Amino acid sequence: MHGKTYSLNSKKSVLICSIPILFFLIESLRANSFASLALTIMHQFNINAYLYAKISAAYLWGNILFLIPFGILLDRIPSKTIMLTAVLICIGSNIALGFSSHYSQMLFFSFMAGAGASTAFILAVKLIKESFSPHYLAFMVGILVSAAMIGGILAQTPVLYFIQHYSWRALFFVLASLELFILILSALFVNDLTNSKIKQPTQQLILQTIKDLLLTIKNPINWAGGLFTSLMNLPVTLVGALWGQPYLETVDHLSASTSSFIISFIFAGVILGSPLVGLLSDKFQSRKVFMILGAFISLIIGLIIIYISINSIVILSILFFLFGLASSVQSLGYTFVSENNPLHRIGVAMSFTGMVVMCGGALLQPYIGMLLDQHKLGASGNLLQYGAVDFQHAFTVFPISFTIALLLVLAIKDKRTKIERV
Question: Is the CATH number 1.10.3470.10 carried by domain 15-188+209-411?
Fold first, then answer.
């Protein structure tokens, strides 16, 4: 595409891409609010850590199971149709969550909310790739990831204060109201910048869809990019979204508000780091070097946080910020996949990658809850009281995961010789 075309369409492109990015931010707020809601919901439904983690994981499984179907549809029908359908599902699910009175209802509607939210990221990436020069792809994906991290920050102290002054049910009604705003914007402005005609499900199209899916699954870059991103996303999905606040309250004896404040620095690190590593990797025309560096630093900081007792709030805040900064190289995994798949398969490729990424959180969130409960068996006192050793035992998944990520990126062979330029 000619550079002049980007210039003429820049305002329209920014507007169209901003709506799914905003949707992604809101859904990130919703997904990461499980950390602030943990003790409240556990008391409300009288459940343990493992059962509570299953509610959070249900949201992720909704993402996982609907990513590929929505990704295939995104390559076949207009983006507006996908967007409106997804947002309506999210609105209905959050309203239902606000009225839930049983644990099983929380599980089901959390799953449905995740199903609707599964479109946010892949839709944003598709519109970004259509709208902007390939040279700025990593930077724009970094902006997208940063938007999600803003949602993560809002899900910490602000959400904690909100549920303390109002209620956890009111939070879901507010989320539904924000999604209603997204629905209106989508109806007014979202359109594909390329061909937006519905492709009828002919036999040839069905065969082509199956072929595209098989080619996507067979591409080792998609697996490598997805696994690397999933492993590097663990500080967000495990610490930021769920277990970080209870960890700091238990291990460092901090208040809920102080703990959520410190956890927000993970998201701040990713916000700064995602566009930064995108710009640097574009400038130096190398993804792999920054991916290796990020995985190695995450491993070192993870070991420090888990195994060294730190009593300073300032030092903890710095460490969690650096943790997020290092893990922000996860955005390069998405860029890596996007650059190694043609535009007509970008929807299914990104949805497949997202599915691999979400599997990490969906499997490990309940697994950590199970480790906490198992390690604490026989302990007396309140059901929700876990010790520092319990968390240290459960958090061994971090050094193992970062080591695997480091070995994985060392084994990746990028077929591109240089980053595309306009």
Answer: no
